[in-house]
Amino acid sequence: MVFYKVEKNGWKNYFSDIVSIEEISDRFCISEKDLKKVSKIYPFRLPRYFYSKIKEFKDPIFIQAIPDILEIKSDSGMPDPFLEDSGLSPVPNLVHRYDDRVILLASDKCAMYCRHCMRKRRVGIFNENFFDNFDEILNYLKNHNEIEDIIISGGDPLLLSDEKIEFILSGIRKIKKDEILRIHSRFFSTLPMRITPFLCNILKKYHPVYINTHFNHSSEISKEAEKAALTASDYGIPLGCQSVFLKGVNDNYNAISELFKKLLKIRIKPYYLHHPDPVQGTSHLKPSVEKGLEIIKKLRGRISGMAIPNYMIDLPDGGGKVALCPDSLIKKDNNFLFVENFRGKVYKYPLK
Ligand SMILES: *Cc1c(COP(=O)(O)O)cnc(C)c1O
Ligand code: SF4
Fold first, then answer.
1. What pLDDT, in 10s, does the model give residues 111-161?
2. Which of 47, 93, 192, 342 is most buried per CB count within 10 Å?
3. Which of 93, 121, 156 to mutate to test the pocket of ligand 2 (most atoms within 8 A of CB)?
4. Could you identify the atom of ligand 2 that is nearest to the CA of residue 119?
C-alpha cells in the first residue's frame, strides 16, 4: 500500500504546498482583514494536506488550524507562564526544569501553527538559529551528568532536513552514550509524509529514540498518518501522543475515547492529555477541568487501559506537571478503603 511517493525529500513538496488566507476567507466567508490581523501577531501556516481534512466551518481540524479573532481579543493568560525563555533557560534554546530532563528548542517553526500552541509567543516568530549555539548546548549536557533524558522539541524539529537531524542526534550521542532521546513532533498529524524510511533509518542509529506525537482528534488519523506511525514503529521507535484537551475539538467523551482507541491501533500510546496552559491568545479554547476529570473517569473500565493517558496540568511558577486523577477513594477507615468503581458502585477494599 503506497499512499504517496516515498522519495528522500519528497515531503518538501507537500511542506511548501500551503493554503493562503484569501482561500480560507473565500471558502468559509470569514473576514480577510480579521484573519490577517490575527496572523500578524500569531503566525498562520497550514499545509494543504492538513487543510484537506477540514470538512466544515468550526470542525475539530478547523478550530486547530484557522486563526480566530478571539486570539487577540481576550487578554487572559500569560505569554510565557512557565518562564521557559528566562528562568528555566540556562543556555539559549535549552529548557532545564527537572534535574534529569532537558528540552532542546531545535526549531522555531512548524508545518502548521496550532491555534492552541503553548509556545505561541515564539514559534514562527523567533528566528533564532539553534545551530549557532549548539556547541554551548552540548557543553551544558557534558557538564550535567544528571541529565538522562533529552527532549528535542521546538517548534517542530522534524522540519529540519534529515542531515541536520542526524547532526543533532550524533552530537548528543557522543556525550550521552545511552540516555533517552525523545523527539516531539506534530508531523505525524499535520504532514505525515515527512516520516520516511530515510528519516527512520537515521533515527534508529541513535536508539533509544522515542517520539511523542500530537493528535487531538480522530479525524487527523488518516491513511497517511497511519502509514507514518507504522513506519516509525517498524524501525523500533516507540510512539506516544501528547494530546491537548480543547473546546470544540475533543471536549466530550466520544471524541476522546475515539481518539485514544484509534491511536492505540496505529501503535501510538496515548501518553498525556494536557489541560490547556494559561497561555495568552488561547483562553477561548479551554474547557473546564471538571469536564476533563469527568471524561477521564468515564474512560476507565470502558476502553483499554493501554489507551488511557494521564490527564496533566502544568503548574505556573515552575511547579511542574501534575497528573489529575478523578476521585475514586470515597473514604477510608482503619480497616478498609471505600472505593468507587467505573460503574459508580462502591466496594470495600481490605487494608489488612
Ligand atoms: C513537560 C516537560 C518535560 C518532560 O516531562 P515528562 O513528564 O517527563 O514528559 C521536561 N521539561 C520541561 C520543562 C517540561 O515542561
Ligand atoms: S506543532 Fe507544537 S510547537 Fe508547533 S504550533 Fe503546534 S503545538 Fe505549537
1. 999 999 998 988 888 777 889 899 999 999 999 999 999 999 989 999 999
2. 192
3. 156
4. 8
Model pTM? 0.95
270: which 3 cell numbers? 496515548
Residue 95 CB less than 6 A away from ligand 1: yes
For the Cβ of 98 lying below 6 angstroms from any atom of ligand 1, the answer is yes
Which residue in the block uniquely carries the three cell numbers 557543553?
139
Which residue from 321, 323, 320, 328 is spatially nearest to 309, judged by alpha carbons?
Answer: 323
Question: Side chain identity at 124, as an amino acid letter?
Answer: G
Alpha carbon of 235 to ligand 1 centroid (Å): 25
Q: Give the closest residue to 103 by CA, choosing from 71, 140, 57.
A: 140
Retrieve residue 243's grid coordinates.
Answer: 494530546
265 is catalytic: no
Using CA positions, which residue lies closest to atom 12 of ligand 1?
97
Instruction: Identify the pLDDT of residue 1.
Output: 47
DSSP 285-331: G---HHHHHHHHHHHBTTB-GGG--EEEEEETTTTEEEEE----EEE
Catalytic (active site) residue 321: yes
Hey, whose CA ends up nearest to atom 6 of ligand 2? Answer: 114
Question: What does the alpha-carbon distance between residue 66 and residue 68 come to, in Å, rounded to a whole number?
Answer: 6
Residue range 183-224, pLDDT digits in tens: 999 999 999 999 999 999 999 999 999 999 999 999 999 999
What is residue 4's predicted lDDT score, i.e. its pLDDT?
52
